[in-house]
Amino acid sequence: MDKVNAILKNIFGFDSFRPLQRDIIQTILNKKDSLVIMPTGGGKSICYQIPALHFDGLTIVISPLISLMKDQVEQLKQLGINAILLNSSLSTSDYNNNLSIVRNQKTKLLYIAPESLFKEEIINLLKSIKLDCITVDEAHCISEWGHDFRPEYRQLGEFRKNFPSAVCVGLTATATPRVQDDIVKNLKLVSPTRFIASFNRDNLFLQVLPKGNSFDQTVKFLEGHQNQSGIIYCFSRKQVDSLHEDLFHLGYSTKPYHAGLSDEERNSNQDLFIKDKIQIIIATIAFGMGINKSNVRFVLHHDLPKNLESYYQEIGRSGRDGLKSDCLLLFSYSDIAKINYFIDQKEDQHERLSAKTHLNEMVRFAETEICRRIPLINYFGEDYKIDNCGMCDNCVADEKELTDITIPAQKFLSTIKRTGEIYGAKYIIDVLLGIESDKIFSNRHQNLTVYGIGKELKRKEWQLLSQQLLRKQLLFRDAEFGSLKVPAKAYNVLLKNERVFGSIKEPEFVAKKVKPVDQSFNNELFELLRKKRKELADRFDIPPYVIFSDKTLMQMAIYYPQTREDFASISGVGKSKLERYGEIFLQILKSYCAKKNISSNRQGLRPSQNKKTADKLRHVVVSEAYNAGTSLEILVAQYKVKLSTIINHLGRYVNEGNKVRIDGLLKYITLSPYRHQKIFDEFKKDNSDKLSPIFEKYKGEISYNDLHLLRIIFLCKHS
Ligand code: ADP
Ligand code: ZN
Questions:
Q1: Is there a contact between 678 and 648 (Cβ–Cβ < 8 Å)?
Q2: How confident is the model over 175-198, as pLDDT tens digits?
Q3: 682 alpha carbon to ligand 2 midpoint, in Å?
Q4: Is 162 within 8 Å of 125 (Cβ atoms)?
Q5: Pairing relation of β-strands 193-196 and 34-37?
Q6: What are the residues whose beta carbons fall under 8 Å from the beta carbon of 572, sequence distance 6 or more?
Q7: Which of 206, 278, 356, 644 sits in a 20 to 30 Å window from 677, CA-based?
């Protein structure tokens, strides 16, 4: 493994492996077939690239997208690796030239498209040399259950039989077990080891806001992301075009992307985006496959995605470099209706139902009051154990003031019952508000006692109430028809006067800006470095992130390296990049530091242990400061956040198996001490980390702050 570590540092410039990478590499080197399931940005590429450099013979990488192959080969070239590609986009002379490189064994890594692979001349060529590894990237393309089935991938199983001594590796970001099994079967993997990484992407900040004036909301969001690259997803081509036009007129650097544009225009817009020549791409779901750009800092969903799978894929295109990225979804009920309309056009009833179930899951995610990672990660069959992620709107928000909403809840539920449980929320609210509509008159619902009894609330407030009843499972929405139904559980509210607590105040719009790193970097210097990177990228006609990632530039703007040696210890600087770009960037660093009288932050650079502080997440920094004696009040002032946010940080730290000092917490708990034990007993009974069931059980009697604090104390005492 020494050689493997050396490759990681010298070639790729990284200090340590991410989870699973080392095991995967070892397994491939042992020539054991493997299936690697890792989310986008998880770091799949080096899992086969490092073994490829280690093997004597050739590794081929089969990849469905020409743009992706080109990008990978370019990145490898920048690292000083002579990777090549074979596909239909090459000129005859380039193609033949690359063939002879393979024949003469002058390369260890060949990227190849399936259509080239199955040519007889290629198979014969590969048989004539030593082939050590067959890598199938985007391996889900082999499965018809996956989202981009490619029939030609099906021949890979047969192809493989020609090379019994080569190990075979499938890689994908698609998680469903059915697709996994399909890959194993069709690739004819021999008792493969399955590596399944967590689907949690903890550097993505997840936020959902009720859609109001979406254009204003978009502009406000973009104001927090100046000079950053991002994607805005819209539902339709028309929306893409009009949003692009409006933003473009305001001076934003945008381009549209959708299936209605010519291939040429689409490719050109994508290229401009990848090369940082424009900042924002406004797109339909057609955009994204085959984008390797690592410095996408935000994804804005202007409209509701059809399902959680798409949402996850789309937000996953941001933050591949591991830096914080901002994902905002604008959520409106009319979007649900729009999607439902399209679903209703489907012929097949089974398909219709399945699409509606998926849509419901999406809506439940948007409506959730608990950590957003719980429904999202659970969707992929993974148990998300942390109660507070600190990286979603719900986890960082202060809990809302809860009030008794029993009476409006009763009115709402009884209107559903009286109208026969066959209508959606809009109709129910119409009846409550006493609207004079033809539909109501033809149903004679103006004669019901509930007609017009809800005028004390606005339509919006009734909608919020309805959402809360759904979340509390005091209400159900029929997946197929969207009608609201009253479940047995709600009879306690309706008939026995059981209290319901909630909030029907409209949530206010808050545009939260997420800083890409916790430790502050020198922004002025970062911009200078970024400018130089762009200039070089333009000169060589390659994407800027291929030269250095944002993360690497940021580290330069934290540590101010002044010598070649210090420069080489920055993450992402391998030997080849040091040779190519070291002097150029050092010059900027040196002259900047001289001008500003700044000295290199060498302690930060070495020993490499300290370097991790730059990557340390805020909850660790905060908790360590707290343990060192800083009070919660001081932390609140220092970070300019609410007390509950600081408590969330401590909670996350403790959840990760650490301890915090208890003495500094007690005075913040409002629940009288004699009742603490009762809550501790609840924690004992329920082993999960989730607080919401306890919160619900003690409706309004105990605040989330108290619960969080008691849970921290409980964990510290009992672990
Ligand atoms: P995937 O193919 O799974 O989407 P990539 O292989 O493109 O992900 O990796 C995503 C990003 O993470 C790249 O910028 C890559 O250089 C970086 N990366 C991968 N492994 C490491 C590591 N061990 N340390 C630091 N960065 C890494
Ligand atoms: Zn969360």
A1: no
A2: 678 889 999 999 999 999 999 998
A3: 22
A4: no
A5: parallel
A6: 12, 13, 14, 548, 549, 551, 552, 555
A7: 644
